[in-house]
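Help! Submission page says 'invalid entity' but I think these are all valid:
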Amino acid sequence: DQQVKQNSPSLSVQEGRISILNCDYTNSMFDYFLWYKKYPAEGPTFLISISSIKDKNEDGRFTVFLNKSAKHLSLHIVPSQPGDSAVYFCAASPNSGGSNYKLTFGKGTLLTVNP
Amino acid sequence: DADVTQTPRNRITKTGKRIMLECSQTKGHDRMYWYRQDPGLGLRLIYYSFDVKDINKGEISDGYSVSRQAQAKFSLSLESAIPNQTALYFCATSDFQGTGANVLTFGAGSRLTVL
């Protein structure tokens, strides 16, 4: 049972345009959501997170939106740059039950930003 | 130097061999994790450790064992490697204190191939 789903394996956008990466989840106990970026031959690096008490969090060119009723979050990158080309993982964790350390990851979306 | 260092970065071995993947960190974090990534799949948790004396199984621990030699060192062993353990392995650390988002810092990964 895949609790965190990234249904688009890949996405291609033009430099300067907006990139929108989507993530859906099924576990209503998830309270924190994180995005990681991964370049080839490197480990994932933390990008941005959002708490379930918020619907938006912004950090420079990166904004994450959370729609709890739809169990959906999205990462917006504006403007997209070629250096943003990477695999993006969505991850989620609960905030209770003693397992709030545990992150559940999606399968990832490969973003390609074309010059 | 990297905050989280994994050795070896690449390893090819044969079925039945014992393999150890090592991880060391300079972050000073108490919590350390081993994840596995397979093509087209997200990261799955193998083992985690909250401190030197606290080691726990993750969702896919069968066929693996770990040792937390010190706060900074956490090794993963495959006692008798099999081909379906061919994967990319990541070590991660965090200073998560029980609330908020659990932000992991990952190593660069160890690619293991079992023939």
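Support: the input was valid. A stray whitespace character was the problem, and the output above is from the cleaned input. The first strand of chain B starts at residue 4 and ends at 7.
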